[in-house]
Amino acid sequence: MPDxxxxxxxxxxxVVAIILFSAIAAVSSAxxxxxxxxxxxxxDETMALLITADGFKSTDKKIETKLNSATTALVNCRxxxxxxxxxxxxxxxxxxxxxxxxxxxxxxxDGKV
Length: 113
Fold this sequence. Notes:
Layout: H1 6-40, E1 49-52, E2 55-58, H2 61-107
Antiparallel strand pairs: 1-2
């Protein structure tokens, strides 16, 4: 559109970026959750473990490593969710401000904000 301002283009770029990051976060969250579920649902192994402040302690080092990795994956998944939430809120605030400015410009007789 020829009457678009650079600010409009920046807002469009921000919305597209948030959508792309949302898609990436959704796919990565699904993959992380799948990894965690696979770590917990392995029926071939039996567990005897202690849960400590430092992580898991088990008689089998392989299980201990899987559970510690699964815990780290869940923490990373949580952090991605928080980051995406903040990005979406900021994008929503930018859209809200843009709409308010546009409405203010439409209310003024000279069309300036």
